[in-house]
């Protein structure tokens, strides 16, 4: 995932906001989605075809925002907020969420056999840049902060691009073990496994010294932290941690997640651990599972950077964290071929997931596969052009009938020094056959919108 490559929040404010946003939920109880999306355009236009204009106001989940020069959320993206697919009973994302929660509830209990993991699945996706980036030690110049990668609501607020955005506030509130599930938003390419909105589950578990060394026969002399600050960071551990402590934590983390993979996919699942980098964990790993003969990355995890715990007031503990992608797990588990299907209202899709017990095995049977139509679009790009601007526009104008967009050719004109891009757009409806006329109309609208909004010049 993208992130492989401090300020202090005032406590009362955090608590007040969280109290409004957090709901302790039991997994049986499902809420119906509530959204109000009111978009006031400063000039005429269809919802879905343009950016929210600077200076104009718009609403997300009942809050009013005034657009500024950072605003790049589109009405199409805003229209997805609050759908909370992960909380809709019988939705495949809800079923897989329930299965993961069941695993944590069953396997991690306290003395009185109550589950230790608290579950949050209704936290507002509009977060601050502090939550999404600063609290996670993401450097100022990290590419994920760029407007081309992230949906900004205003300069200081954005649609979370990862559920890790909630780590700090939940630790500040005193939670040591929690799961946070929610919709996350990223500007990205368009294909069968990428959609600008997807769902993640964050897991965090903090341990005290006695908890870490609980299983050790003779723990005398074992500590969580080095007693000098002369020790350097290595590929195995952070400077302040002892190797004993992080090795035990690494074992616990990998064991927790590989057992989860077996719980979800059965004993035969093939998986592998890959070393990687995140600004908020060290060491860090990704778990990949074999999907259609390819290794598919389904989660990132690692030992939490101690500075995060320090900033959140948990300096005597160490912890692990993971973030997993629900769509990817569900695509593998239920054999769902395309990520757009999760947004389908078609009963042919949804009815296949109407089971009372989320542990019931389900294999999705495509109702039918409709033919693709392909059309190319070539144009000269303006100076400040970024590819993700084009992908967003295609999604906004073309909607979910766009299956894939690929940049097939780039050409620099030797004389004019102008660059041209040629994109191949594949159209396919999930529920019917598209006529050539329908495709041509949409393709024309996309071209026109790119001329008007991105100032491209068709070739
Ligand atoms: N937030 C990371 C991502 O979205 C995943 C992650 C979560 C990695 C927690 C490590 C720890 O890519």
Automatic annotation (TrEMBL):
Gene3D superfamilies with a match to the protein in the record: Bira Bifunctional Protein, Domain 2, Ferrodoxin-fold anticodon-binding domain
A GO cellular component annotation in the UniProt record: mitochondrial matrix
EC number: 6.1.1.20
Assembly, per entry: Monomer.
Function per UniProt: Is responsible for the charging of tRNA(Phe) with phenylalanine in mitochondrial translation. To a lesser extent, also catalyzes direct attachment of m-Tyr (an oxidized version of Phe) to tRNA(Phe), thereby opening the way for delivery of the misacylated tRNA to the ribosome and incorporation of ROS-damaged amino acid into proteins.
Family classification: Belongs to the class-II aminoacyl-tRNA synthetase family.
UniProt-recorded name of the protein: Phenylalanine--tRNA ligase, mitochondrial
Species annotation: Paralvinella palmiformis
């Amino acid at each position: 995932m993208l992130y492989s490559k401090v300020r202090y929040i005032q406590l009362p404010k955090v608590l007040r906001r969280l109290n409004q946003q957090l709901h302790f939920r039991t997994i049986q109880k499902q809420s119906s989605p509530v959204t109000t999306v009111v978009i006031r355009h400063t000039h005429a236009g269809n919802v879905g075809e343009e950016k929210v204009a600077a200076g104009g106001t718009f609403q997300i989940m009942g809050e009013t925002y005034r657009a500024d020069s950072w605003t790049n959320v589109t009405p199409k993206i805003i229209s997805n907020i609050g759908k909370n697919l992960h909380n809709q009973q019988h939705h495949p994302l809800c079923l897989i969420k329930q299965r993961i929660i069941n695993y944590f509830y069953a396997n991690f209990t306290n003395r009185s056999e109550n589950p230790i993991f608290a579950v949050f699945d209704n936290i507002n996706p509009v977060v601050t840049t502090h939550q999404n980036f600063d609290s996670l030690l993401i450097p100022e110049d990290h590419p994920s902060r760029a407007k081309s990668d992230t949906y900004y609501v205003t300069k200081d607020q954005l649609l979370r691009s990862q559920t890790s955005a909630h780590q700090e506030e939940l630790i500040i509130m005193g939670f040591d073990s929690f799961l946070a599930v929610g919709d996350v938003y990223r500007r990205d390419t368009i294909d069968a496994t990428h959609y600008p909105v997807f769902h993640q589950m964050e897991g965090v578990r903090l341990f005290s010294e006695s908890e870490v060394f609980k299983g050790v026969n003779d723990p005398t002399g074992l500590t969580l932290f080095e007693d000098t600050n002369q020790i350097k960071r290595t590929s195995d551990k952070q400077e302040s941690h002892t190797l004993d402590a992080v090795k035990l934590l690494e074992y616990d983390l990998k064991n927790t997640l590989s057992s989860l993979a077996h719980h979800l996919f059965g004993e035969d699942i093939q998986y592998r651990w890959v070393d990687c980098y995140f600004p908020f964990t060290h060491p860090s790993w990704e778990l990949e599972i074999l999907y259609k003969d390819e290794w598919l990355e389904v989660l990132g995890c690692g030992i939490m950077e101690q500075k995060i715990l320090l900033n959140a007031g948990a300096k005597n503990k160490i912890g692990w964290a993971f973030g997993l992608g629900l769509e990817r797990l569900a695509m593998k588990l239920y054999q769902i071929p395309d990520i757009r299907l999760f947004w389908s209202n078609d009963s042919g899709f949804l009815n296949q997931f109407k089971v009372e017990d989320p542990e019931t095995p389900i294999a999705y049977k495509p109702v039918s596969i409709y033919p693709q139509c392909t059309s190319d679009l070539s144009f000269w790009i303006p100076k400040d052009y970024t590819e993700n601007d084009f992908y967003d526009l295609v999604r906004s104008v073309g909607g979910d009938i766009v299956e894939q967009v690929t940049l097939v050719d780039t050409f620099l004109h030797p004389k004019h020094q102008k660059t041209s891009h040629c994109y191949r757009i594949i159209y396919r409806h999930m529920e019917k056959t598209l006529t050539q006329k329908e495709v041509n109309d949409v393709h024309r609208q996309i071209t026109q919108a790119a001329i008007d909004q991105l100032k491209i010049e068709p070739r």
